[in-house]
Amino acid sequence: xxxxxxxxxxxxxxxxxxxxxxxxxxxxxxxxxxxxxxxxxxxxxxxxxxxxxxxxxxxxxxxxxxxxxxxxxxxxxxxxxxxxxxxxxxxxxxxxxxxx
Length: 100
Fold this sequence. Notes:
By secondary structure, this protein is an all-alpha fold. The chain has a single domain (about 15-100), classed as Helix Hairpins (Orthogonal Bundle). About 80% of the residues lie in helices and about 0% in strands. The model has no long low-confidence stretch (mean pLDDT about 80).
């Protein structure tokens, strides 16, 4: 099995994911705003769940953005590792050509 990836694939993915962080926060705020007209329309456990969602919306947003930042950190680490491996492979190839 061969795995072939361009040299900028992970950095491009990181940039795309980083932009998604702002989008995610915006979407959650839009969801909360869209739910405003439902305030007071629930009873019982539905009301408890709705009130809990509203009360914890900032926490939910922060948790999701934190998870997204962790993904970005992983992507950045993989990009660094792949870049170092690429340079090492080039260096080894030059050494082997010189030795030959």
